Amino acid sequence: MLTYTIRRLVLAIPTLLFISIVIFLLLQLAPGDPMAQVPLTVPPEVKQRMREALGLGQPIHVQYWKWLVQFFWVEPQVVIDHWFGTAFAEGKLRVLSWQTRSPVMDIVVQRMPQTLWVVGMSYIVGILIALPIGIYSAYRQYSIFDQAGTFISMIGFSIPPFFSGVVVIVIFSVNLGWFPSIYDTTHVVTDWDSFVVQLNQMIMPVMVLALQTTAQISRFMRASMLDNLNQDYVRTARAKGLKESVVVMVHVLRNSMIPIITVIALGVPSIFGGAIITETLFKVNGIGQLLLTALFANDLPMVMTLTFIFAVLIVLFNLIADVLYGLLDPRIRYD
Predict the structure, then answer these.
(1) Rounded Cα–Cα distance for residues 7 and 15 (Å)
(2) Which of 3, 38, 119, 307 suits 289 as a labelling partner, its CA being 20 to 30 A distant?
(3) HSE-up of residue 178 (Cα within 13 Å, Cβ side)
């Protein structure tokens, strides 16, 4: 397993380099001009100097190489300086946002806690609800509980977040006044009362996002459980006199979790990518809203960095899912 993991990590390097090239070229071909937001009163010669300051006048391969060095060489040095108090990155040019002229990674670090509070919590809540529903729906196939779970899952699949988000705002914020409709990103949790306030403003966006997660994972869980409940090893375990709870929750569940690991692991990068629509609806100042703003402003360094981070997370969690396969199923070996 260790040899396989090291081999996959080595192979991930050329894969990520190829992905970065594709992302960079696609963004270069995209329409739009970062100078479009500049007022018309600005003289053309000033605009030209601004373009040169942003590096827009350089060849494409020079811009890509500069971003590559800044992202893979300078930014890790910034992290080391922050952790150990060194000065390796002092005076070196970092990846700068064309909008704010601030380091992109500093902005990402500022926005990440808000995204993890909302999107991360919704993912955890969705998984904790979906797994028991999927397990019990499969065990009690075609029961009232199974039919109700199927109906709710279809609703979760069918209703997009921009509709369900508006509905919960109208019901729980406008009509009932239970929860705030705008997420206060400046709120800091320092004691129990402030934690309760944080929970109140998280409930509606978490509810909207968890509905989709629950619908997806519960259906996968149900299908996987049904496939394993009809296997020969289940009949053998029951014939040996094992308790039904042991048969279902140990033998069947362990084998059923193998495909679910893929769904859960590949969904984790979406947490760090943010939920663009939901964050925009509830005014959550997170990564999704940051990416949307950068796209509108044609902020290529910001979009390039966020998209590449998302690609890195996908490759990483693919590897984690493969490793977990071997831990869950002894028959799977990579040596």
Answers:
(1) 13
(2) 38
(3) 11
pLDDT value of residue 38: 59
3-class DSSP assignment, residue 124? helix
pLDDT tens digit string along 106-122? Answer: 888 888 888 888 888 88
Residue 229: the pLDDT is: 82
Secondary structure (DSSP) of 142-203 = TSHHHHHHHHHHHHHHHS-HHHHHHHHIIIIIIIS--S-SS--TT----SHHHHHHHHHHHH
At 106-164, the pLDDT tens digits run 888 888 888 888 888 888 888 899 889 988 888 888 888 888 888 888 887 788 777 88
Per the structure, how many domains does the chain have?
Answer: 1
Q: Which two tokens stand for residue 52?
A: 């040169």
Q: Does 238 map to a domain? A: yes
Task: Say which CATH number the domain at 286 has.
Answer: 1.10.3720.10
Which two tokens mark 324?
């977990």
The answer to the question of residue 288 being in a domain is yes
| All residues at 6 or more sequence positions from 182 whose CB lies less than 8 Å from its CB, including other chains | 282, 283
- Structure tokens belonging to residue 148: 């109700």
Full domain range(s) for residue 178: 110-296
Q: Report yes or no on 93 lying in a domain.
A: no
Residue 287 lies in a domain: yes
Give the chain's residues under pLDDT 70: 1, 30-57, 272-274, 326-335
